# Entry
Amino acid sequence: MKKITWLLPLVVVTIHVYAQRKEDRKTLGNLQLHINYLSSNKLEGRSTGAPGEQLAAAYISAQMKQIGLSPKGEDGFLQQFTVKESKEPATNCHLAINEDKLVAGQQYLPLPFSAEKSVKGEVMPSVNEPDNIWFINVAEMDTDSRKTPLEQYLQQTQIAEKSGATGVIFFNGRESIAEVQQWLDQHPATAGIPAVWVGREISKKLSADDAGSFQVNMQIAFKPIKRTGTNVIGYVDNKAPHTIIIGAHYDFPGWESTAKSDDNVSGTAALLELARLLTGSRLHNNNYVIIAFSGKEQGLYGSKYFASHSTVNLAQVNYMINMDGIGQLNPGKALQIGGTGTSPGWAAILQEAATNKELPLAYDSTLAGNSDHASFYKKNIPVLYFYTGTATSDDKINYTGTLNVLKLVYNIIDKTNNKDKLAFTSAQ
# Structure
């Protein structure tokens, strides 16, 4: 009997280790499933507002439901927000010079203040006549350092309009077509005449020494664009007085990308696995908001929107954890943890939670990166930001490293379970 008593602790430890390894294997398998789907070509990069983002949002919300989270969006698990209100040339927008029909977005673009009208005329580059279209050589314009290029274009258009011009074509501008495209996001006052910008190819023809007159026929028309992003929000309601927000963005840089991308699929996958572990845990002294943000790459739109339209009382939020690019924990590379200066309690909590000696850590008391945690810091909420790097292909994702980061985050939540609400301090 005495022998059995002495063996019991060893048996208990063995069972615990086996159970932990089994749970780790399950978590690793789930991480791989999530990452494989979210980085698949089917989702076409998950750009904010694109069909691939909607597929990703549907997958994440389905996983949250399966895990047992309660919906905490404004439409079930979903919370939509406007990222961009812009315009682009409509299908009936055209510009023809002589017999050449120019391609909008490649050879020319209407300027955002342009009137939506049709005009035509026979024009010489060096002659600006009333009741005709004007060619304006940007290289010869008087510049004003106090005004942006767009403001100067608008000013020249207004001058031309007052002088009787029926439309203007700007050439020899220093801007790229991509820069002019961005101007369409702005909303300046509208001029009374059409105004377009042409690129280098057409500028070269208009600037030629032997350039004669040009037959110009243009019709300016815009199509409004409204791009919306979607946050996916789940909730674990423990009837607790305080709430922890855990987030990761799932969108990809750019608009409507068709490129395969793994940008922060590691953080999104870890977010889902943390949610699963927390729903079955004994950590009931906080509620948990689990948020997959979109619009991060366009300027933190998703997290900013949630912080201003929160579906929980932010005054009761204990702290926020953000995982943005945790999939490249390579040998000899430390896990970066930013935001440690946002609460005086973080130092002791992190020391207590960091039990894995094989996981090197590098602390930064500042916000350490322009990511979604910044939106909550601005609401005087303590934050932590976890980052190793952004994987660019599936074979570069360190799954064991991702698991270790996930377990560290879980330990932090564990160590704060029986503590009071963290105090906030400025990290600047």
Observations:
- The chain has ten helices and 17 strands.
- Residues 2-38 form the longest helix (37 residues).
- Residues 1-6, 10-17 have pLDDT under 50 and may be disordered.
